[in-house]
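Session log. Operator J.P. requested a structure for one protein chain; no other inputs attached. Running the standard single-chain path with C-alpha cell output.
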Amino acid sequence: MKKPTIIAGFLFLFLLQGCSSYLTSSENVSKTKNDYEKFLVVGRSKDNTARIKFENSVVSQLAEQGLNAVSSYSANAMVDINKKYSDSELASLKKKLMSNGYDGVIVTNLINTEAYTDVVPGSTSTAYVPARVGRFGRYLTYYPITTWEPDQLKSGTKYIFESSLYRLAESSGDNLQWVGRFEVRDPSSLEKTVSNYALDLTKALVKNSVSNAK
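Structure written below.
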C-alpha cells in the first residue's frame, strides 16, 4: 500500500496569497478606451520616499507597455499635491498640463486604513502507520492516524487605495475615465508593495481604458 503524502494546508494558502492581486474593483467610467500621448503620475502621500518610489514604479510599468509617463515629483513642480485648488486654479492647471503635452493624469490616494481579523480554516491530514502483527514480523496492516489543525485567527492592518485616470482632452462634462480600488494588507517591504501595486494598476488601465499600449 502506498503511503499518502501529507501536505500542509497553510502552504497552499500561502501560495494563493502570494500570487493574489491588490486590485479589488475596477470600473471603466467612460465606457471607452482612448489613446494617450503622455501621462502625469501623481501619488498623493506625505511620505516623499514612498511617493517617489511609487510614481517611478508606475512610470516604469507604463513604459514597458510602450506608454509615455512622467512622475509628478519630477515634472517641474507643475502640481502641488498638498494644495487645495479652486475651480479657476484647476482650469489653469489643466491648460498648463495640456500645453506641456499631458493628456492623461493618473492620481492615487490612500482612502482608508482599517484593522482586520480573518479566520484561517483548519485542515486535516492522514498518515498510515505500519504495525507488526504476530510472529511474522512483517508490516501486514496499516493504521490511519489523522491530525486536525484548528482554525486560526489572523489580524493585521489593511490599507485601501483608490487610483483614477483623467483624460484632459475630454471637452464635455467630467473627464474621469477609469477608477479602481486596491487593498494592501500588512505591507512588509516598500519596494515590493509599490512594484506589485504599479503592476496591478498598469494591467487594469491597459485592459480597461488605454488603447495604445503595446
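Operator note: Residues 56 and 119 are 36 Å apart (CA to CA).
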